Amino acid sequence: MLGKEVSTTDEFVKGLWRENPVFVQVLGMCPALAVSNTAINALTMGLATTFVLLMSGICVSALRNFIPREARIVSFICIIASFVTAVDYIIQAISLELSRSLGAFIALIVVNCLILGRAEAFASKNKLTRSVLDALGMGVGFTVALLWIGVVREILGSGSLFGVALFPDGFQTWTVMVLPSGGFFAMAMWLLLVNWLKERQARAEKLTQEATS
Amino acid sequence: MNTPGPVLRPATSAWSMYRAIVGIGALCALLIVTVYQTTAARIRENQARFLALAVAEVLPAAQSTVAVELSAEGRLAAAGEAPALPVFLGYSADGELVGAVVTAQGMGYQDNIRVLYAYSFELDAIVGFKVLDSKETPGLGDKVEKEPHFIANFERLDATLTPDGNALLNPIVTVKQGEKEEPWQLDGITGATITSEAIGEILNDSANTWAPVLERDSSAFASSEPTEEQ
Predict the structure, then answer these.
(1) Do B28 and A103 count as a contact with CB atoms less than 8 A apart?
(2) Contact A68/B28, CB-based, under 8 Å?
(3) Which of A40, A180, A212, B3 has its CA 20 to 30 A from that of A206?
(4) DSSP letter string, B139-161
(5) For A93, which of B9, B43, B137 is closest by C-beta distance?
(6) pLDDT reported for residue B3
(7) Which of B43, B51, B130 would you mutate first to test chain A, the one with the most A CBs within 10 A?
């Protein structure tokens, strides 16, 4: 989008579909594959990441004129790590069970390249409102993508959704879907679908352009 | 559109780098300490509630519990500051000793597994079991928490002591699924072999230490007033 004036609402919307962090930028794969085995884990991970993305986006954007280029990586990582530590404590205070099921992956938000990527590529160069919208859009896009993967894996792998059993007794669960390899299967299916839809969209746009010109 | 030319940046002074790094460090430290201080009480409360619920689950007959520990002389003593692996004596409503709940820990397939089990003085057996903390493979190793035939092992898992009361008469071992023949054997899980064997070892080690002490010393505690209401 270099050189093109982007509307404020578009800063938010772009993260949802056109520049979706998981399905288009393919960033933050570690949590997207590892903790998407159930819908509730995927949702919590998505929300925690969104919170860190938003808070670090605000800080980086507010302090952008104060942080010299030479010290930016250490500053960004320090800010991100602090918010991740805060989120870890907050989740433990809300529910110990949830914190147990997410295990080490909350702490690993620190090295989610989506967050450092947005801080470096966007928040450090843009005004506060735009950075907030960008972080929210990316966060929601990330959460929704994780939730899609989590829903597919939980239904097929555990026969339930948000912990509620969907099938009568005797349903043979497809255990491989809750194992790490299932993450790759579900991810690949969604990538295929999203890319197919995007291609169709692009072709349709091209056709209308030709028809109008 | 014009191609942007090379940008000449003024040299960054040492002062502005110090200011940025130290300033951000101080802000981050403040943030972490504030959040830690505000959530610490809630987290401790959650942990205590989680443990209390787990104790009530493995030994439902107990209306109240007393935390105990092994003293330096190897006797049973009232527990001091929250031990890593707490042990409780459970009492019924009229103050009768109904059992003990022991926390045990050992290596599983992925990482340490922490479990809680109930020991019955009347039956000389393990009568309840719950996994407190495990990072076992979802869908395989975590079956030890869900598989009905494995949980059925803990209806009455024999932990009788030798006549001199110093060790278990028969070691608690995990056998292959469907091959359980003796009351001290654990019917294992196909697909969770290592985890189910680890559970057997954890219980055997812990019961070998605790069952003799509990049998020998717990009656001395039976008369004392239970302090911790559940």
Answers:
(1) no
(2) no
(3) B3
(4) TTGGGGGT-HHHHGGGGSEE-PB
(5) B43
(6) 66
(7) B43
pLDDT band at A211 (very low <50, low <70, confident <90, very high): confident
CA–CA separation, A79 and A76 (whole Å): 5
* Cα B172 from Cα B198, distance rounded (Å): 11
Cβ proximity of A186 and A152 under 8 Å: yes
First to last CA, chain B: 74
Query: Is the complex ipTM more than 0.85?
Result: no
Give every CB contact of residue A115 below 8 A, 6+ residues apart in sequence.
A28, A49, A52, A53, A56, A80, A109
Cα separation of B103 and A193, whole Å? 48
Walk along chain B (230 residues) and give the pLDDT tens digit of each residue.
566 667 777 778 899 999 999 999 999 999 999 999 999 999 989 988 888 899 999 999 888 888 888 877 777 878 777 677 888 888 888 888 889 999 999 998 888 899 999 999 888 899 999 998 887 776 788 888 888 899 999 998 998 998 888 889 999 999 998 888 889 999 999 888 999 999 999 999 999 989 988 888 887 775 555 455 44
- Report the residue from B21, B27, B39 with minimal CB separation from A74: B21
Band of pLDDT at residue A60, cut at 50, 70 and 90: very high
Cβ atoms A83, A55 nearer than 8 A = yes
- Give the closest-approach CA distance of A39 to chain B in angstroms: 14
Count interface pairs A-B at CB distance under 8 A: 74
**Nearest CA among A110, A120, A114, A108 for reference residue A138:** A114
Task: Note whether A81 contacts B50, CB cutoff 8 Å.
Answer: no
Q: State the DSSP code for B95.
A: S
